[in-house]
Amino acid sequence: MKIMSNEQLVVSYRDALKSGKDKEWLRILKDEIYRRGLKPFKKQS
To answer: What InterPro entries does the record point to (predicted)?
Structure first.
């Protein structure tokens, strides 16, 4: 996996979710997001 900033990682994850094509890439991104302690979506009030 190439080195990404936190923002790039979250954007890539959101794009992968929307496309829904590459499940393995989605899993890798999700693992990295949780490893870094990020939250890919804002809470909706």
So the answer is: Sda, Sda_sf
Distances (CA, A) of 13 to 5, 32, 44: 12, 10, 18
Residue-wise pLDDT for 1-45, tens only, equals: 678 899 999 999 999 999 988 899 999 999 999 999 988 776 655
Residue (of 3, 16, 8, 18) closest to 38 by Cα position: 8
Q: Taking the model in full, what pTM does it have?
A: 0.74
Hey, what are 25's tokens? 């890439």
Q: How many CB atoms within 10 Å of residue 13? A: 20
